[in-house]
Structure of Integral membrane protein:
Amino acid sequence: MTDSPRPDQGPTPFPPAPPAPVDHLPPAPPLSAHEAALPPRPVEVTVSFWTWIASAVWSFAAPVILVTQRDEVVRLTRASQPTLTAQQVEAGVSLAIGTSTVVAIVVATLYVLFGFKMRAGRNWARITLTVLTALGALSLAFSLSWMSLLSTLVSVVAVVLMYLPNANAYFRAQQRVG
């Protein structure tokens, strides 16, 4: 069998016509009582949300730097720990890369998840992000680097934005309605 058109249905030079335009669209459904009672999201909450997203992306900086600078990390480790064998140094650097990657994935996932919940007005997410930032600030006492310091400062900015007066009013209103 061939795929050629039947003689009575010759090829059409034009595609089929689009559907006729709709003269009247139905109105949008009314807002529910819950939706109507919600205040608009303040700019502070939106900026805080995007700051959390940026912080989640930034959390991948450490593993990327470790991977791209692996040889330098190995060289510096061998110089600072001459008693370690080459195999021990390689294993240690591989472990550091793996651990930092897992931590970055966990931190990024938590920041994004709680960031979305915070943007939706969930006070528990705002509190959780505050606790995560406090833990990050405490970790600076054990491992101070410019990357961890910058990450903590960005998180502190996001936390401050979440507690400004407009943001507080938004979270209070969400609790009353929800």
